[in-house]
Design goal:
- The protein has twelve helices and 32 strands.
- With 521 residues, it is of the alpha+beta class.
- The strands form twelve sheets. It has a four-stranded antiparallel sheet with strand order 18-26-25-19.
- Strand 30 and strand 31 form a beta hairpin.
- The longest helix has 36 residues.
- It starts with a helix and ends in a 5-residue tail after the last strand.
């Protein structure tokens, strides 16, 4: 046997024995280490949740720490901004939810699985490179979409879509106009990104907009919506059921298409009107014998032009009948607000300020109707709040309109037809709903909670006509608020339901003050 080979063999044995001993020790201590960690009720070192250090914390401690940060995030408004226009949005308003519990569970069990080698690898990796656990979040896409639709309705220079209404024996179609349109997908992505990032300090999100032409006028769709076959009014007894008359309405689609080939802002299409032989008036008072609901708001009778607009709006609503299952449109009932239609200039909200505008005040009537409809327990199809809190109704109870942009719609979900009755005089606008009461008629009330408040700012304008130190308030200003309004329905004095009616955000209205120039030395 070779001498070298003879001397090498014992060394190899020693190395092998030492290696085995080291391996056994490593395995032993690794097992002990893993078992200790498996029984450790605290989070191991190097663990973070969305960048928040939770190392060494118990499950409850980590939960409290992370929830405190996320609860603050839920209460923090983000401002959507386009040029001088601003509006705020709150994560809670769009149903944002953060699954903190799931992330805490992942943190507390990290490195404590069944495989001791895998556990030790994870523990060492967390110590060296850190482990950051994500928090899963969800949003109510419908709520977010609705808020963006509201923003679109208030956006300065927004695109105006085609619309139509019936005036006497003519169908009036307005073409609409080119304007700004929100890139909805991009804005939703920006909002979600902001809400997802717990470390984001961005208070403002610039609203992405594009220039958009109004949609093409769909004359066949309009024909489908307004066509009616003439029907006489009738009713049955035991049980009483009313079938109001239907005025026949039709027009030639082919003739209308030829007319639409002309480049006009407004088109007048002649209608074929067929009057029924028997109307509800012929039936008598049996048709709408009971008052279902009534709601009133007050106005300043000294503002003559505004009162004119209120009375004109009421006159167009008065005696309006809405059949069961039928959807009522405020814009189509009132038509376009123009001087030719009799509307006057009065105060309106525009671009963050109160200015004179044609038809100012008719939103008070749409808001009054909104409340009467709610009290009548009918379904709201479309409704948006004003940019600022109104003077005639508390936050959460108004309904703004803008022809071609924002409508107020409701559906008659009652079992019988209803009739709208209006009055407007002596500083009070009242809307009453008449019909036949259901077997179970609910008493309806509302509760509005203020979620957050945004103080108004003050703007000073130097005016050389005023003396130094003299001031004149041009616009009072008002705080912005975010509200949740609940509708409560009672049956025989017992609460049957309490549901969230709307979540609304109102911008702060800037206080504007003129003041005399300060004398310079």
């Amino acid at each position: 046997m070779d001498k070298k080979e003879f001397t090498k063999t014992p060394k190899n044995k020693v190395i092998l024995i030492v290696s085995c001993v080291l391996f056994i020790c490593l395995l032993f201590f690794s097992t002990i280490f893993a078992m200790i960690n498996m029984n450790n009720e605290k989070i191991i070192s190097g663990i973070r949740i969305e960048g928040i250090n939770v190392s060494g914390l118990s499950k409850e401690e980590a939960k409290n720490k992370v929830n405190e940060i996320y609860n603050k995030k839920l209460k923090t408004d983000v401002v959507l901004k386009y040029e001088d226009y601003e509006t705020s949005i709150n994560p809670e308003l769009v149903g944002t939810k953060y699954d903190v519990d799931k992330s805490i569970d992942e943190a507390i069990t990290f490195g404590k699985g069944g495989n001791i080698f895998a556990n030790n690898y994870k523990i060492l990796a967390a110590l060296i490179v850190k482990k950051n656990i994500k928090v899963k979040n969800t949003f109510d896409d419908n709520s977010l979409s609705k808020i963006i639709d509201d923003v679109q309705g208030n956006l300065p220079g927004a695109v105006v879509e085609p619309d139509y209404y019936i005036e006497n024996d003519k169908l009036i179609i307005t073409k609409g106009s080119r304007g700004k349109y929100i890139n909805k997908d991009e804005l939703i992505s920006k909002i979600k990104e902001n809400f997802e990032d717990i470390n984001s300090t961005d208070k403002y999100i610039n609203i992405p907009v594009i220039e958009k032409e109004p949609d093409n006028i769909d004359i066949e769709k309009i024909h489908t919506e307004i066509y009616k076959e003439v029907k006489d009014a009738s009713y049955t007894k035991d049980p009483f059921k009313l079938y109001p008359e239907v005025i026949g309405i039709d027009f030639s689609v082919d003739d209308a298409k030829k007319l639409l080939e002309e480049d006009k802002e407004k088109y007048e299409i002649p209608l074929t009107i067929t009057q029924p032989k028997v109307t509800i008036k012929d039936i008598g008072s049996e048709a709408f014998p009971e008052l279902i609901a009534k709601f009133s708001t007050r106005y300043d009778g000294g503002m003559v032009d505004r009162e004119t607009n209120l009375k004109l709006a009421c006159s167009k609503l008065d005696e309006k009948i809405v059949l069961p299952g039928e959807t009522f449109s405020y814009n189509q009932t009132l038509g376009e607000r123009t001087a030719q239609a009799g509307y006057k200039n009065a105060k309106v909200y525009e671009n963050g300020a109160v200015v004179d505008g044609i038809g100012g005040g008719i939103c008070q009537i749409s808001s009054t109707l909104y409340n009467a409809v709610l009290l009548s327990n009918m379904e709201i199809v479309e409704r948006r709040n004003h940019q600022f809190v109104t003077s005639y109704l508390p936050a959460g109870r108004d309904a703004t309109v803008a022809y071609g942009i924002t409508d107020f719609k409701f559906k008659n979900t009652r079992s019988t037809a209803i009739k709208i009755k209006t009055s407007c005089s002596n500083g009070v606008a009242t809307i009453s709903i008449y019909g036949i009461k259901e077997q179970e008629e609910y008493d309806v009330s509302f509760v509005t909670e203020i979620i957050s408040t945004t103080p108004f700012t003050v703007k000073y304008i130097e005016d050389s006509t005023l003396k130094s130190g003299e001031e004149e308030i041009i616009q009072k200003g008002a705080n912005g608020v975010t509200t949740e309004t609940y509708i409560i329905k009672k049956l025989n004095g017992v609460v049957a339901s309490k549901e969230l009616l709307s979540k609304d955000t109102y911008n702060p209205m800037q206080r504007i003050i003129k003041r005399g120039k300060t004398a310079t030395k």
